[in-house]
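Researcher: Re-running this chain for the archive, since the previous output was lost when a drive failed. Same request as before.
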Amino acid sequence: MSDAAALYESTLAPWACRSASSRGRRHPEPDSPTRNMFQRDRDRIIHSTAFRRLEYKTQVFVNHEGDHYRTRLTHSIEVAQIARSICRTLRLHEDLAEGVALAHDLGHTPFGHSGQDALDAAMKPYGGFEHNRQSLRVIEKLERRYAAFPGLNLSFETREGIVKHTSPHDTPRNADLAEYRLDEQATLEAQVANLADEIAYNNHDVDDGFRAGILDIEALNAVPLFAMHYEQALRAHPGMDDALAVHETVRRMINHLIVDVVEETMRRIREAGVESLDDVRRADRALVGFSREVRRMNAEMKRFLYRNMYRHYRVVRMAEKAGRVVRELFHAYMDNPAMLPPGVTSRMDGQGDDASRARVIADYIAGMTDRYALDEYGRLFDVHARS
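Model: Regenerated structure tokens:
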């Protein structure tokens, strides 16, 4: 490890994760003279093909609906920024949290959660589909950038953070993940990245929903978390137009949640008597979290977004069309694999069973951007389109 990396890690809290105590990479490599292990992980993620594809993958609104809506790429960057802010205040390893944040959606399908749900349904007879599991496949097998090994050969701790990323759409339970000790808590850095994801998508979905004309200030003011910060924003800047007022309110909500996470996490660390990373892993619950009151307010915001945005007829219509695209692509490829490009069919060589072929097809579809999936759908099902 370089002197600079050692100096940085000497400033971290006793319960932070350090690259010097990492469980290592699957394929051993010499240390970098200028970067710690988690910096190298972060850099490999940024330079990966899967990361670049996130620019054209849906967060809520499909790419062609407008230039200013969040995509999976901008969302991942926003998650990383929030995670770094929390880690810096708590003296946790910023590079590890950033790497987990940037990688957590690498395996996401086109068209957001509707695409994932459709692919999961199609894959049910063959083991199902889960995007954090797919992110692990991307970094361990599917990325091809290094001659010495498949995937990106990331550290155990970065891979663990991806595996233990949980949300209403992804919770790892599979027996083949035993090496990640699912009964243990993840590092605090991975826990921070997990909560930063929730902070980012809730608050930025408010911003995108308002921009799309699906949410308005009157409706949003029924949510206590929004109403409290909207009132504060108007007192500080009377006469703002509605768009600026929403930006100000979202900014204040994010800050409120970050401050609460920092205070609540420190309280839990003290209460649990944590003195080391081993203590973090042995804890009976996640140590990074919201206080009870903020957790309640955040849950109200999530319920509001579900009822008023995610179930809005415009979003539901697009989700239904997106699901149809994914389902029909999958079944067309399964029925006639000869329609797949040579680079995909070559991965099927020697794969005699349907489950193995289905997994290769799922890899191909999950790697598509929104626009590629729509173009491919046209090529397969529009008789006037060129193949």
